[in-house]
Structure formats: C-alpha cells, structure tokens
Amino acid sequence: MSRISAGGIDALLVFGNVLGAHSEEETAALLAKVPFVAQVGTNEGPVSTAATAVLPSASVAERGGTFTSHVGRVQRFRSGFPARGKAKSPVEILVSLGNRLGAGWDFAGEASVFRALAESEAPFAG
Which one, of 45, 36, 53, lies nearest residue 16 by Cα? Predict the structure, then answer.
C-alpha cells in the first residue's frame, strides 16, 4: 500500500471492492493515485468507481471452487446456478488475461487449477 500511496504503481488489478482492511474512502483515495485500475468484481463500489476497466465476475453462488479454513482444511463448494450476463469466474478471467500476455496456460476452470495446485502443494493433494 505504501507504493500506491507514493504514486509508485502504474497499473493495478483488484479482485473485489476494497483494498485489504481499508475503508471505502481510503480505498478511493489510494486508487486515485493509480493511472490504470482494472477490477474483477460482482458489484459497484469504490474500486469499480475508480476502475478504468471492470471485468464482471461470477459471484460465489455462481461458481465453484475451494477455500481453506484457518486450521488448514480444504473444502470444496459448487456452483448454485450459472453466472448471469457476461460474468465469468475469476479463474476464467485470470487465464484469459494471462494468455493474452503470453502465459500459454491451458486451465479449463477451477477443477483444473485445483489439480495443478494439488500436484505441487501437499496439503491440497487429498
């Protein structure tokens, strides 16, 4: 955050609508110092207001994935219903952006990302 405050960031990709524990007002003030802000999010707020580009993200109810509890237990969740409009899962958005920048990723959704993670990180292997 200190680099943002000092004007040392030229571009920022933000998931969600706040920066860490900062208030909406603090978030807006910080982002005013960044020339290009892209947001991946589900609703309007200080990040989408400051954003040069908004990439609509599927909500938690519209996508599957995993989360890890404070005790290290990995839990899977599934989509409750399809994403609306042009919204995509954060994984689809990241893979698309990465590939446009030359990453060459071949992930096909959350499950393939999880498999790759499980292959490299023992706690996710089951």
Answer: 45
What CA–CA distance (Å, rounded) separates 121 from 126?
Answer: 10
As a whole number of angstroms, the distance between CA 29 and CA 9 comes to 14
119 in the same domain as 70: yes
pLDDT digits (tens, 9 = 90+) for 1-39: 889 989 999 999 999 988 889 999 999 999 999 999 999
Q: What is the DSSP string of 76-111?
A: EE--SSPPPTT-B-HHHHHHHHHHHTT------SHH
List the domain range (segments joined by +) for residue 99. Answer: 60-124
At 97-121, the pLDDT tens digits run: 999 999 999 998 888 988 898 899 8
Task: Measure the CA–CA gap between 30 and 75, rounded to whole angstroms.
Answer: 34
* CA separation for the pair 113, 119 (Å, rounded): 10
Instruction: Report yes or no: 34 and 10 within 8 Å, Cβ to Cβ.
Output: yes
Does one domain contain both 32 and 78?
A: no
